[in-house]
Design brief:
mainly alpha, 80% helix, signal, sodium
């Protein structure tokens, strides 16, 4: 029974993390749209651009955050 609770707990943490990521992305995209920084660009294009931007920054942080460089 304890293993079941452990699995459920970590699944809850995983889904909470996903929800936080989607909420953050939605907040950034809606802010860009509300300020009218890109008035003629569709919301889907802005969202894709932001996701690509976040992914690129994440890869750079991962590459340069290691304790040893190759």
């Amino acid at each position: 029974m304890g293993n079941l609770w452990a699995i459920m707990f970590f699944m809850m943490l995983f889904t909470l993390g996903l929800d936080s990521q989607f909420g953050t992305l939605q907040g950034v995209v809606q802010g860009i749209i509300d300020v009218k920084l890109c008035p003629n660009i569709r919301k889907e294009i802005i969202t894709g651009h932001r996701k690509l931007h976040f992914h690129t920054l994440r890869q750079l942080c991962r590459k340069y955050s290691s304790t040893h460089h190759r």
